[in-house]
Amino acid sequence: MSSLCLIAWIASMKSKNIFHIFMSVTWLSGLIYYMLGQLLETRDSVCTHSQISNNLAFDRGHAEDSQLLLDLGFTENPHLYPEAYRINDNLPVFILTLEKHQVDSLYGFISNFKFYYPGKRLIIYSIDLQEEEIDVVKETCHCQVRHVDWERYPSHVHNKQHFHAYRPILIQETLMEFGIVFWCDVMMRFMSSDLSPYMTQAKRSGVITWWRQQYPTSALTHYNMFRYFNTNNTNFYFQRAAQPNMALLVNSRRVHTELMLPWIRCCLDRECIAPRGSQPGGCNFMHKPKYIYAGCHHYDISAYNIILGQMFEMETPYLGSDKLFTTVN
């Protein structure tokens, strides 16, 4: 009988010890859970304040960009061709941007332009000319020379040498003003005065553009720009890169919303137009295959071609024939 009591007492003690151990573990787990909760709450509070601060900074920049987009005509009821414009047989208006190093080449362009299009309007945007140079240009072309209001734009748009982020902004300004514009390069030399087939094509597709590069968009565009547009460089292995400064554009609804809006948004965002790691020089075109990234980024041209590819689903109804003009070196 005493043996049975001893066994019962030992079993009772083991049960109590197990119970105490269980309670101790439960209490310790609760304490750890509470302490971790406090730590995470503190961390989340810090992160939240940081995120709020960052979001406020982003919102300020976004608000400035939004106002600029409104100024550029991106409203609920945009000014579009042909409804918002008077019938004008003198379209398109020819537009040219001019930098200091291009002044000597301007004279050949002006002579050629006046020969083929004596009745057409030409507007030149001064990118970095001095007043004396502007006066000489005015005397030479007898055309309007406009200044660029750089203060309206983010600081990276002022990078006139490489980014050319100002180009789609100026294109949009002139599209909004005239309805149909022909953006030109100073090295272009026209070979025909008959624009009617090109006007027909432009009114149908919204844009005609020409290529001067022998390489595809994928070879001239940093990988991160493709990511920005939610696409892959492999989609552009065989898209020949076109030139935005050789383009006939119509301010149609499709061009307004599918081309100009995403293009300008990209150019207003430095991370899009000039992704980290991108550079204008250092091109290596010796590699094969030719569609692999050559190591040099083409900024606004790259964005332009990505958007055209997405807009037309990699078809090319926007490409113009090479019979209208040639280029000189």
Quick tags:
329 residues; alpha/beta; Spore Coat Polysaccharide Biosynthesis Protein SpsA, Chain A; 6-stranded mixed sheet; 8 strands; 48% helix; transmembrane; transmembrane helix
General description of the model:
The chain crosses the membrane at residues 18-36. InterPro entries: DUF1647. The chain has 329 residues and is an alpha/beta fold. It has a domain at 93-212 and 243-274 and 314-327: Spore Coat Polysaccharide Biosynthesis Protein SpsA, Chain A, CATH 3.90.550.10. It is 48% helix and 14% strand. It has nine helices and eight strands. The strands form two sheets. Strands 3-2-1-4-7-6 form a six-stranded mixed β-sheet, sandwiched between helices. A two-stranded antiparallel ribbon has the order 5-8. Helix 3 (131-141) links the parallel strand 2 (122-126) and strand 3. Helix 2 (103-116) packs parallel to helix 3 (131-141), helix 4 runs antiparallel to helix 7 and helix 7 (253-268) packs antiparallel against helix 9.
Kindly state the percentage of residues in helix: 40-55%
What is the alpha-carbon Rg in Å? 31 Å
Main sheet?
6 strands, mixed
Which class of secondary structure composition applies to the elements?
alpha/beta
Order of helices and strands: HEHEHEHEEHEHEHHHE
CATH domain topology of the domain at 93-212 and 243-274 and 314-327: Spore Coat Polysaccharide Biosynthesis Protein SpsA, Chain A
Overall 3D form = globular
